[in-house]
């Protein structure tokens, strides 16, 4: 079962005294189990900071986070994370990198061979299993990292701008993969992005984050049919959402 | 290496493999010909410039004189190469055996990082070779002072590069490891160690270059055998031809040591080499 994530008056300040940086919050937010929630906000507003706190990789200054009522105190091992820079290691093949996720968990990767193959096929990397990361393009590396984040079948997925460095066409194709995955397995997804269109296309809920210190003043439910293909993206309703969110950022003085 | 989706050729058997090896060799020589030409040209120039300008042999011998006179003294040269080689290799291995664990300890201990590390960094400024006469004075003419001096000049590159190597795993990989719940030992074997090896080898290779230098200078200071001793005696006897022959064997020794370390790098971290080629 995917988890419901409750964020309760959470805030983060880096450093102390006159050098302290109030990076984020306070924020209250509930992320429903099985929803796809985007965090959309300007650079430096604390999106990555929030993501790390949700994963239990960074301590909150105030407030707390609960997974199905259980307070996050240590790194959570039941989630899949994809960072802005991928976590592929150069000394392992694509397959070996995916297996690394399992080996670090003390699992034997052998029984997962079939699953790894299926994952690679789903992102069109079959045939590249034995290649090393340096033999892949940036987009292919990111797709391999996608498989690495999913191989242990996490019910919660955290994505910190995983598509940030990719070209428009590759982004589009990975979005489609991501959406297909979410629709079939319905994990809880938290997705950080700078792109308004991307957020509207993928999300059930878009959270608009204010400039630093980031706060979530607006959460917008995106009521569009699935899958959100080219037809949906061309619809007036889609354009309306994008336009409205642009308006919010204009009011913040970001756009 | 060409990246394509096609599977790599299977290793050809027998005659096929030999043909490939010969092909490879011919290609390498073909690729290196400008260098070889320059090399040959350099020695020809040396030979005929010495003859043309009538430089006396006790100042600068010709390459052909160096070869013939050196050849006449080959047993002693080989003997001394073994002596200097032993000093260099022993000192080098000792420096790695001590420097790597110390580097590791400093990288992982915040306390050592604040005490021993800055001490090492300031020692890095001291020209270690300046200690050579002291060690000779304290320990005499034997093998031990030479080995210690080699250790001294090899230790810092090894230790400082190891500290750097083990202390610089990216935030993202560190977080990735933590998010899997892996303990420190498993994280070390699966991620930290392999990630650190390329930087460690930067230190190993640098130290390999230092090793023969340390041994030679130690022999200059005080010894009764070895290539450093040979060179200083030959120079004192106005026999630069023999000094050059000694230098030639020292060069071979340095190349061999460096070659071994490079080979080890190739075997241990082949992925790094192929990545570097891009
Ligand atoms: N370790 C740290 N020490 C001090 N300040 C930090 C640290 N990490 C982040 N910050 C500050 O916190 C703020 C939020 O950073 P964060 O990385 O969460 O932003 P972001 O929304 O992810 O930005 P971007 O979209 O550019 O990735 C920034 O102003 C940054 O300067
Ligand atoms: Mg960020």
Describe the model.
The complex is a heterodimer of chains A (255) and B (278). Chain A is α/β, with parallel strands linked by helices. Chain A has 2 domains: 1-12 and 25-78 and 155-255, Rossmann fold (3-Layer(aba) Sandwich); 85-153, no CATH class. Helices cover 34% and strands 24% of the residues of chain A. In chain A, the strands form 2 sheets. Chain A has a 6-stranded mixed sheet, sandwiched between helices. Chain A has a 4-stranded antiparallel sheet with strand order 2-1-4-5, with helices on one face. Chain B is an all-alpha fold and 278 residues long. Chain B has 2 domains: 15-54; 63-275, MetI-like (MetI-like fold, Orthogonal Bundle). In chain B, 80% of the residues lie in helices and 0% in strands. Chain B contains 11 helices and no strands. The longest helix of chain B is centred in the N-terminal third of the chain and has 38 residues, at 15-52. Chain B starts with 14 loop residues before the first helix and ends with a helix. The model of chain B is unreliable at 1-12 (pLDDT under 50). Chain A binds chain B through residues 52, 55, 57, 75-77, 79, 81, 83-87, 89-92, 100-101, 103-106, 127-128, 131-132, 134-135, and chain B through 1, 3, 5, 170, 172-173, 175-182, 186-187, 190-191, 194-195, 269, 271-272, 274-275, 278. Bound molecules: adenosine-5'-triphosphate and magnesium ion (MG). The site of magnesium ion (MG) has 3 residues of chain A, from helix 1. Chain A: Residues 5-236 form the ABC transporter domain.
């Amino acid at each position: 079962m995917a988890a419901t994530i409750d964020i309760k008056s959470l805030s983060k300040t880096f450093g102390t005294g006159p050098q302290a940086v109030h990076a984020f919050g306070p924020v209250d937010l509930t992320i429903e189990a099985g929803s796809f929630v985007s965090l959309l906000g300007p650079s430096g507003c604390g999106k990555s900071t929030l993501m790390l706190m949700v994963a239990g990789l960074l301590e909150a200054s105030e407030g707390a986070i609960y997974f199905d009522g259980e307070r996050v105190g240590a790194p959570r091992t039941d989630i899949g994370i994809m960072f802005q820079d991928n976590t592929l290691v150069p000394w392992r093949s694509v397959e070996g990198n995916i297996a690394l996720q399992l080996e670090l968990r003390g699992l034997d990767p052998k029984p997962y061979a079939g699953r790894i193959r299926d994952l690679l096929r789903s992102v069109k990397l079959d045939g590249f299993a034995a290649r090393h990361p340096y033999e892949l393009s940036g987009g292919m590396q990111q797709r391999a990292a996608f498989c690495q984040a999913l191989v242990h079948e996490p019910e919660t997925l955290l994505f910190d701008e995983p598509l940030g460095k990719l070209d428009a066409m590759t982004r589009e194709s990975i979005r489609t993969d991501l959406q297909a995955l979410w629709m079939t397995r319905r994990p809880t997804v938290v997705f950080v992005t700078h792109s308004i269109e991307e957020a509207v296309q993928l999300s059930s809920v878009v959270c608009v984050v204010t400039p630093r210190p980031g706060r979530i003043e607006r959460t917008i439910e995106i009521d569009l049919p699935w899958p959100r293909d080219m037809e949906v993206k061309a619809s007036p309703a889609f354009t309306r959402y994008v336009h409205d969110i642009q308006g919010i950022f204009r009011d913040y003085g970001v756009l | 290496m060409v990246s394509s989706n096609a599977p790599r050729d299977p290793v050809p058997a027998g005659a096929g493999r030999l043909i490939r090896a010969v092909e490879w060799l011919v290609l390498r020589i073909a690729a290196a010909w400008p260098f070889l030409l320059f090399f040959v040209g350099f020695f020809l120039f040396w030979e005929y410039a010495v003859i043309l300008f009538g430089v006396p042999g006790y100042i600068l011998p010709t390459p052909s004189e160096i070869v013939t006179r050196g050849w006449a003294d080959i047993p002693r040269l080989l003997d001394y190469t073994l002596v200097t080689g032993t000093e260099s290799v022993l000192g080098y291995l000792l420096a790695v055996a001590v420097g790597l664990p110390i580097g590791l300890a400093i990288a992982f201990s915040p306390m050592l990082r604040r005490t021993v590390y800055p001490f090492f960094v300031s020692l890095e400024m001291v020209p270690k070779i300046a200690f050579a006469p002291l060690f000779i004075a304290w320990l005499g003419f034997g093998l031990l002072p030479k080995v210690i001096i080699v250790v001294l000049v090899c230790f810092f590159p090894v230790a400082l590069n190891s500290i750097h190597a083990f202390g610089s795993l990216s935030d993202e990989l560190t977080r990735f490891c933590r998010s899997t719940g892996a303990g420190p030992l498993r994280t070390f074997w699966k991620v930290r160690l392999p990630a650190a090896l390329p930087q460690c080898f930067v230190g190993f290779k640098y130290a390999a270059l230092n090793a023969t230098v340390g041994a030679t200078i130690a022999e200059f200071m005080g010894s009764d055998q070895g290539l450093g001793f040979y060179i200083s005696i030959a120079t004192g006897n106005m026999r630069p031809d023999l000094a050059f022959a000694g230098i030639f064997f020292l060069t071979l020794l340095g190349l061999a040591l460096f070659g071994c370390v490079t080979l080890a790098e190739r075997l241990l971290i082949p992925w790094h080499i192929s990545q570097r080629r891009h």
